[in-house]
């Protein structure tokens, strides 16, 4: 089937940053205050976009409210007013790179750059040696961070990996890391899934991706390879017009032919991302390989805090053959303040969207917090014995025994993360806390 592009193809990927964005006409026409905010905030939080995102996904007549503008361009309120003023003054006074960096780092360290114990508690060991390119938190799934896949086609302003993009988080990888993963999987036959993540692994050329993933095809206990990626939204050219697009699709077919389930875990924030002809063609091509595309995204104020947006997104995903998988709660890091939606509101949005869609889209679960003890879903609110409570459950737990048992927290309309919650019914602790304290020790 031939495919005719009705939009420019952007044959070559070009990163747009605060260094080169002034070459673009969209930038020239942007309100000076918004421009200033991009320049100031991007000293602290990473900024990167590309021509496709900027020209096809952002509707400039709706800026600054446009959701994809909010998703990819730094906004003034992401920093405290004093911090903003401090960086702005340094920039205006022509401060040196060192001065700017020192101020930026001081602000960055106040933004909880390493949430949920990722660096300290999830790095597995083999024969007494730490394996820094891996994380193993839940029984059946290991996360794999290939060294050459640690950037993205564009950066989301809310992203909890922001620290890694600016070199604050020192994950170093060497050529032997697939060897480490293979050895670890051989020692742990209970691990059925590898989740390849980043950054975005699909930023890698197919040749490199093959180098990392081919060794996994030989491991009989491994059933599923998941690839976490935003590429279908931010650079669908990866599967359609890039020089090695066809080679990537052939590799996906080989993974499937080797008897593995290949799951593309697509970050999918807004239905706009699914609307372009090239995105739909990319989805079609990926599905044709036998891979299954599952979608997930956090609920983000200014971007998708609207039940109709989620309902439309899930409907459109199902129509295109994708499977809605998770709705996440924005993590407690970076410009969280700007993006956070209270848990009570998040659950209302989830439920209001869920009610609008057919059962085929109700594969999605959420809203879910990826917190230190596990993935905790807010099932809803209820009144039990005269007390208003949140009903919660673990979708994943550091101890699998915690999963699927409803538990209760005092209702709090302002709570926006698990740490804000208190147990209901006058209890001292949540049921898992004592054990968690022992595990974290
Ligand atoms: C979400 C997540 C997984 C995968 O969980 P599933 O519920 O199986 O999708 C694995 N490891 C970590 C650290 C995660 O946060
Ligand atoms: S594409 Fe994913 S990993 Fe990359 S910045 Fe966005 S949320 Fe973060």
TrEMBL record:
<dbReference type="GO" id="GO:0051539">
    <property type="term" value="F:4 iron, 4 sulfur cluster binding"/>
</dbReference>
<dbReference type="InterPro" id="IPR003739">
    <property type="entry name" value="Lys_aminomutase/Glu_NH3_mut"/>
</dbReference>
<keyword id="KW-0408">Iron</keyword>
<protein>
    <submittedName>
        <fullName>L-lysine 2,3-aminomutase</fullName>
    </submittedName>
</protein>
<keyword id="KW-0004">4Fe-4S</keyword>
<dbReference type="GO" id="GO:0046872">
    <property type="term" value="F:metal ion binding"/>
</dbReference>
<dbReference type="InterPro" id="IPR007197">
    <property type="entry name" value="rSAM"/>
</dbReference>
<dbReference type="InterPro" id="IPR013785">
    <property type="entry name" value="Aldolase_TIM"/>
</dbReference>
<keyword id="KW-0949">S-adenosyl-L-methionine</keyword>
<keyword id="KW-0663">Pyridoxal phosphate</keyword>
<keyword id="KW-0411">Iron-sulfur</keyword>
<dbReference type="GO" id="GO:0003824">
    <property type="term" value="F:catalytic activity"/>
</dbReference>
<keyword id="KW-0479">Metal-binding</keyword>
<dbReference type="InterPro" id="IPR058240">
    <property type="entry name" value="rSAM_sf"/>
</dbReference>
């Amino acid at each position: 089937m031939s495919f005719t592009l009705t939009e420019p193809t952007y044959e070559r990927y070009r990163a747009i940053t605060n260094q080169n964005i002034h070459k673009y006409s969209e930038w020239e026409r942007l309100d000076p205050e918004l421009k200033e905010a991009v320049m100031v905030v991007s000293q602290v939080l990473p900024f990167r976009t590309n021509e496709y995102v900027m020209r096809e996904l952002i509707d400039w007549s709706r800026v600054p409210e446009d959701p994809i503008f909010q998703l990819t361009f730094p906004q003034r309120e992401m920093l405290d007013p004093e911090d903003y003023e401090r960086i702005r003054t340094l920039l205006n006074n022509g401060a040196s790179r060192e001065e700017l960096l020192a101020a930026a780092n001081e602000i960055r360290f106040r933004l909880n750059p390493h949430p949920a114990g990722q660096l300290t508690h999830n790095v597995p060991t083999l024969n007494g040696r730490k394996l820094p390119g891996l994380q193993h938190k839940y029984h059946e799934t290991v996360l794999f961070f290939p060294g050459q896949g640690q950037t993205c086609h564009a950066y989301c302003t809310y992203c909890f990996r922001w620290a890694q993009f600016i070199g604050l988080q020192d994950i170093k990888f060497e050529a032997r890391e697939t060897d480490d993963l293979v050895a670890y999987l051989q020692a742990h036959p209970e691990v059925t899934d590898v989740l390849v993540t980043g950054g975005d692994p699909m930023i890698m050329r197919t040749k490199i991706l093959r180098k990392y993933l081919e060794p996994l095809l030989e491991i009989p206990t491994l059933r599923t390879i998941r690839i976490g990626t935003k590429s279908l939204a931010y650079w669908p050219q990866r599967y359609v017009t890039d020089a090695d697009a066809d080679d990537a699709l052939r590799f996906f077919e080989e993974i499937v032919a080797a008897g593995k389930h290949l799951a593309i875990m697509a970050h999918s924030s807004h239905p706009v991302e699914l609307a372009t002809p090239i995105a739909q063609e990319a989805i079609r091509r990926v599905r044709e390989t036998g891979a299954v595309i599952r979608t997930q995204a956090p609920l983000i104020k200014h971007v998708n805090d609207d039940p109709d947006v989620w309902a439309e997104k899930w409907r459109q995903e199902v129509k295109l053959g994708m499977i809605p998988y998770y709705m996440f709660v924005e993590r407690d890091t970076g410009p969280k303040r700007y993006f956070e939606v209270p848990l009570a509101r998040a659950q209302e949005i989830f439920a209001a969207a869920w009610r609008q869609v057919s059962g085929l889209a109700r594969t999605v679960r959420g809203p879910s917090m990826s917190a230190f003890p596990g993935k905790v879903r807010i099932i809803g609110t209820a009144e039990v014995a005269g007390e208003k409570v949140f009903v919660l459950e673990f979708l994943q737990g550091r101890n699998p025994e915690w999963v699927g048992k409803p538990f209760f927290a005092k209702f709090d309309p302002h709570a926006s993360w698990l740490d804000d919650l208190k147990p209901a019914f006058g209890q001292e602790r949540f049921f898992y806390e004592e054990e968690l304290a022992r595990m974290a020790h």
